[in-house]
Amino acid sequence: MTTPEEERPDQERPAPGRSGLRNPAGAARGLGAATLALEALVLLLAIQPIRVLGGRLSGATVAAIIGLAVLAVVVAGLLRRPWAWYAGSAVQALLLLAGFLHWSLGVLGFIFAAVWAYALHVRRVILS
């Protein structure tokens, strides 16, 4: 039994991209969305341990954490648009600035900024 590609040798199959992925843009979006979704989850789960370990969380700080988590989820859903990648970088910058509200948010900001930088690097390599 032959496959359709073998029956028509005159038609060439399209060459896969340099990365070898069928949908490199989709893979990059998936990595970015997973990074932002994980960031949102970590932010929401960080509220209680900060409070238990003696952190002084004001209502504004909790609202900022929840707002950043929601923003990360929204941006993760918009990564099909090219500007959303810049918005993802802005989320990382906002999380770094939230470090002024509580030092642990600054630590999370550095960690997720590094992960986001890696995701941007992988995106650039895959799509080039």
Automatic annotation (TrEMBL):
<keyword id="KW-0472">Membrane</keyword>
<feature type="region of interest" description="Disordered">
    <location>
        <begin position="1"/>
        <end position="26"/>
    </location>
</feature>
<keyword id="KW-1133">Transmembrane helix</keyword>
<feature type="transmembrane region" description="Helical">
    <location>
        <begin position="91"/>
        <end position="119"/>
    </location>
</feature>
<dbReference type="InterPro" id="IPR025327">
    <property type="entry name" value="DUF4233"/>
</dbReference>
<protein>
    <submittedName>
        <fullName>DUF4233 domain-containing protein</fullName>
    </submittedName>
</protein>
<feature type="transmembrane region" description="Helical">
    <location>
        <begin position="59"/>
        <end position="79"/>
    </location>
</feature>
<keyword id="KW-0812">Transmembrane</keyword>
<dbReference type="Pfam" id="PF14017">
    <property type="entry name" value="DUF4233"/>
</dbReference>
<feature type="transmembrane region" description="Helical">
    <location>
        <begin position="27"/>
        <end position="47"/>
    </location>
</feature>
